[in-house]
Amino acid sequence: MSDEKILPGRVTPWRQTYWDWRAAGNFICGGSGTGLLFFATLAAGNMDAYRTMALVALAFIGCGLFCVWLEIGKPLRSINVYFHPQTSWMTREAIVAGLLFLCGIVTLWFGAGFFAGTTALLGIVFLYCQGRILLASKGIPAWREPKVMPLILATGFVEGAGLAVVLSAFLPGDGPRWLAGALLGALILRRIAWTLYFKAVEKSGLPKKAMAVLRPFGAKFEMVGQLLPEITLVMGIFYDAVLTGLTFVAGLIAAAAGWWLKYTLVVRAAYNQGYALPVLPVRGQGEVKPGIKPGWTK
Fold first, then answer.
1. Element at 49 (helix H, strand E)
2. What is the DSSP code string of 99-148?
3. Is the confidence at residue 241, as pLDDT, over 70?
4. Tens digit of pLDDT for each residue in 85-103?
5. The model scores a pTM over 0.85
6. Which residue blocks in 136-266 are alpha helix, DSSP H?
7. Longest dimension (CA), the chain
8. Cα 94 from Cα 98, distance rounded (Å)
9. Which domains are assigned to the chain?
């Protein structure tokens, strides 16, 4: 049965509006902050540089959690998020966030060392929880694809490396030269993760309106968000005299492209399942007809 024969209404997939820019803000800021914490631990040239990077990273994560708090219908009941660690990845994210800020504050106070590494590790766990939140949302086909996990992880590391490059340009001393190579490697991993994700949703099928969002986005993302910073970084590596300036530009573009990707995935492509029938039932005797899945690519 063609989609044209389906009356408009709540039969075909429609875009959910419960998770809006505030939910996207949590994924954007959380991924950027945790990625930056990781690279701050490895790339900061001195304690002052680490403190600056770590403080910015914690501010990003805090801003993301504040966005979630704004999204809650009854913010004063937000404590309830801690009550379901056995079933909810949001609960686990909140618990990890508390430990993350505790270790982060201790690190900022006493200096880098054991707690700095622990903070970076908790940041990775926090980022993992964010990916699992999307994956657990089974009602949204664009989120429940398993390849969304490596995509969220990869773009978090790209954003972190990009922000580390940007901040290094303003901090005293020279940032490590390998940071440009790390950003390039993270970009390549994100390209692979995006390609695998998009091929997976093309193969399994998506709501047509979701695919109408992701397909044109993917073409622009691969050119502007991936190829442009990759070329810029390669130019900077080969032309050593302009390495700092080009890596700065590439870092900005790479991080902004990650934010663009998450906003598109969380807000614009968030079409739900809709209704489908495996087979069309018949009354009395007759041949069972193939089912319908209106509004889907497959």
1. helix 47-71
2. HHHHHHHHHHHH-SSHHHHHHHHHHHHHHHHHHHHHHT-TT-HHHHSTTH
3. no
4. 888 999 999 999 999 999 9
5. yes
6. 141-144, 148-168, 178-204, 208-220, 228-238, 243-263
7. 82
8. 6
9. 3-292 (1.20.1630.10)
